[in-house]
Amino acid sequence: MKEKIIGQSIRLFEKKGFSETSIQDIVDSLGVTKGTFYYYFSSKEELLMDIHLGYINELLAQQEKILNDQTKTCKQKLFEIVHMLIGDIKSLGLAAKIFFREMKNLSQERLDLIVPKRDQFRYNIEELIKVGMADGEFRPDLNPSIITFGILGITNWSYQWYNPNGVVSEQEVTEIFVEMILQGIQSN
Questions:
Q1: What is the pLDDT of residues 136-183, one digit of tens each?
Q2: What is the CATH number of domain 44-185?
Q3: For 80, which of 39, 98, 153, 180 is 20 to 30 Å away at the CA?
């Protein structure tokens, strides 16, 4: 039931927004009581925190698996991370929208748990860019921090417009993005 509450809440938060969605809306849409909700969550904010943690922990786990693959080059790892982010739109797209849009509704105490994880995801990409620069895969004159923000900006905004069931596949979007990125940062 906990996963059903989370899933339905994500859909409602995406449609109505966190602030405009009540616990009553959530339980009514599931045909359960508030007692059922409170069995799993002490508050709507705790539910939002659970959504945030689930999203960022999953991304970090997938990213770590990619980064730890010693058989791949930095370019290949970058491709796989971008592909992961685009591919996750199908399964995690609504959760991603909630993650980016509704973070403002978390208390500082809860943000203090989420922000370091979000930052770690970014730092991991930045480190990948630095390693690629040192290995000669990427130009040595780059600003890794700005490049990383650019990559995340490109991929994260895709959650707003990309339709995984549309005419362009996630593989094609990834190839376009990575080609665009690498043509700007690839060593000659």
A1: 999 899 899 999 999 999 988 888 888 888 898 889 999 989 888 888
A2: 1.10.357.10
A3: 98
Hey, what CATH topology would domain 1-41 get? Arc Repressor Mutant, subunit A (1.10.10)
pLDDT per residue over 9-21, tens digit each?
Answer: 999 998 998 999 9
Report the percent of the chain where pLDDT is more than 70.
97
Write the CA distances from 28 to 25, 36, 101, 107, integer angstroms.
5, 11, 24, 26
Among residues 1, 79, 13, the alpha carbon closest in space to that of 52 is found at: 13
Listed in order, the ranges of the chain carrying CATH 1.10.10.60 are: 1-41
Neighbouring residues of 97: CB distance < 8 A, sequence distance ≥ 6:
14, 159, 160
Distance CA 52, CA 110 (A): 10
Beta bridge partners of residue 186, listed in sequence order: 138
Domain(s) labelled CATH 1.10.357.10 in the chain stretch across 44-185
Query: What is the rounded distance in angstroms from the CA atom of residue 188 to the CA atom of residue 185?
Result: 9
pLDDT at 94: 78
CB 62 within 8 A of CB 109: no
